[in-house]
Amino acid sequence: MANTCVECGISWQVTPRDQAFYDRMSVPPPKSCADCRLMRRLVERNSRTLYKRKCDKTGKEFISPYHPDRTFPVYAPAVWWEDGWDAMSYGREVDFARPFFDQFQELLNAVPHQGQFVVGGTIQNSDYVNCAGYLKDCYLIAEVDYNENCYYGNRLYHSKYLVDCSTCYDSELCFECIYCIKCYGLRHCRECKNCSESFFLDNCIGCKDCIGCINQRQKQYMILNKQLTKEEYEKQKAALKLNTFDGLQAMRKKADELFLTQPRKPVQNENNENSTGNHLYDSKNCEECYDSKDLEDCVRCVRVFSVKSSMDYNSWGDKSELMYQCAASGDKGYNLKFCTTCTTNNSNLDYCGHCTGCSDCFGCVGLRKKKFCIFNKQYSESDYKNLREKLIAHMKKSDEWGEYLPKQLCPFAYNETIAMEYFPLTKQEALKRGYAWRDVSDEKPNVTKVIPAMKLPQSIGDIPDDVINWAVTCSVTGRPFRIIKQELAFYRQWDLPLPRKHPDQRHWERTTGRSGIKLFPRACGKCSKQIQTTYAPERPEIVYCEECYLKEVY
Ligand SMILES: [Zn+2]
Ligand SMILES: [Zn+2]
User: Fold this and answer.
1) Are residue 95 and residue 159 in the same domain, yes or no?
2) Helix (H, G, I), strand (E, B) or coil at 64
3) What per-residue confidence (pLDDT) applies to 513?
4) Where are the alpha helices (DSSP H) in 415-476?
5) Which residues span the domain enclosing 536?
6) Domain assignment of residue 15, yes or no
7) Who's near 492: CB < 8 A, 6+ residues apart?
């Protein structure tokens, strides 16, 4: 059956697999296409745009993803988790003369929100973090667990001393890396495993002391895919001056030129059975799942792990099942539909936000361990069931049932959220689609001097310790940024020049430079077999099918 997306106008199909899932969840097919739906749900996740704001209960300042101008109350996390307030006191009757979403919006605007997503009691000396647990001495990292001394990054797990890295696991002492696993001492590398002491690697495994290489396995002393002796390697490495800004720039350019002449895998998947997507690992019977691990029977899930039988679900997971059109929810969720930010041991929820340990609730906000509630009001089991049916019938009439929360209910501006990493939009495009936008306004830095990035010395040896009292203006955006003490020590230890771009610009370039979350049909560059790849046909990279790629590499 062909449908036209009510939002972007493209034609899309409800597949038999989709329909079977809709039947199982007792919902009608959605009205917008998969991309428009994902975009909407991604805007529920602001992991790394953080603000200093006041807790609306204690007046104390803290760091929050909610801008101070938000109209709903926001409590610091410890305060939110205390028993000093009761979400049930905001309970209200259903008004069948009005649309559901209008009433739900009023409830959302009344109930206090948890002001920062951190696992209470596990964060040491790391105030500027979000969506985080088990951290020590970290700064400006988000979607992270079990890290120490990591600064500026996202999706870091079980790692130490990572600076400007994204999606890295079990790694240490890396700078400006993305999608690296079990790596040590890497700089400017992508898609590497078990590599160490190297610069500008792409898709390498088990390499050490290599520079500007792609598709290498268990190699040492290679530069630009050429094997050298140890002596030659040391000599050429010294001549490259990788401790200077210009030296790094020149090597980046040479490496990128070489990489364009070498084949790539169609997608970066591993250990899957009967599954499609990208950056998908250890999964079975999945379709179009991205940046995810341990999934079974899932369709269009993004950034989740340990999930079964779910569809259109992003951000979190962790032993969750039957999740449909949910965002930022997880930790043993079961049968949740159209929810946002519902955490730990929830089951059978429809249209709920910020609930924990609840079951059989509809349209509730901020509840803890409640059952049979609608709009935060308690009912008996039979009254709940009757009222739920009546409310669904009402929502069918008002064309609301089966649709995710409308955009005006979203607490974040489009450009504050992870939606920008998958679907980058301009301000005009975001506004046209009905999303909010927040123009960046940096506080004037309280510093002794501000210097333009291009005036920074070439190498760290020429930078005085006093630089931590300055601000640097980003060479791309002109935004001022500071260097923190721990960061400076890291650059000194690794003889790296100071970055010349604002951390947000660095994040943006790192995360949007990777291949995306759309699969395109394309012919293998070697055997012409039809493949599905995240490299669009017009992109310049050479893409091989899995078999041809492996033949080439091994
Ligand atoms: Zn669409
Ligand atoms: Zn091939």
Assistant:
1) no
2) strand
3) 63
4) 419-422, 427-432
5) 520-553
6) no
7) 460
Same domain, 172 and 65: no
What are the CA-CA distances from residue 104 to residues 94, 100, 101, 228 (Å)?
A: 10, 6, 5, 66
DSSP class of residue 356 equals: B
Cβ pair 198, 211 in contact under 8 A: yes
- Would the pLDDT of 338 be above 80? yes
Calculate how far, in angstroms, residue 379's C-alpha sits from the geometric centre of ligand 1: 38
Note whether 209 and 197 are within 8 A (CB).
Answer: yes
For tokens 């730990």, the residue is: 344
**CA 268–ligand 2 middle distance (angstroms):** 16
Residue 380 CA to ligand 2 center (angstroms) comes to 62
Q: What is the distance between the alpha carbons of residues 303 and 62, in angstroms, rounded to a whole number?
A: 27
CA of residue 520 to ligand 1 center, whole Å: 17
For residue 44, the model assigns a pLDDT of 98
Task: Report the alpha-carbon distance of residue 398 to residue 478 in Å, rounded.
Answer: 48
Residue 539 vs residues 405, 515, 533: alpha-carbon distances, Å: 35, 10, 11
Q: Could you tell me if residue 216 is inside a domain?
A: yes
Q: Report which secondary-structure segment, H or E, holds 240.
A: helix 230-240
Six token digits for residue 101: 């979403």
Does 197 map to a domain? yes
List, as ranges, residues with CB under 5 A of the ion ligand 1.
5, 7-8, 32-33, 36
Count of domains observed in the chain:
3
Q: Give the predicted TM-score (pTM) of the model.
A: 0.95
